[in-house]
Amino acid sequence: MDQSYDSAVELDDAVAIADDGEIDGEALRASARHIARVEVADAVQDALADFPGSLRDLQRQTGLDPAVLSRLAQGGGKQGATVASLAQVALALGKSLRIVIE
Q1: Selection from 38, 34, 32, 31 nearest residue 73 by Cα
Q2: pTM reported for the whole predicted model
């Protein structure tokens, strides 16, 4: 499920300028939520590719519900991933978590 995109383009498109010169915050937030879901899904899928176990095995290690892990990997759900839940997944997989704003 590689949802390739250019986040810089999407963010540029989301930053609509209203007639009064203000940035359209709602459009920016919607675009940011979409980008976050795609980034998390891609990262979780990549991390899970080398994991020999099942989501239930990972659940036992992280304490996160398998449905939550599945939603993270699929980019679903209304709520975004928390940094803490991503750190739990990374640690359970023997990986590190790095957040970069470029």
Answers
A1: 38
A2: 0.71
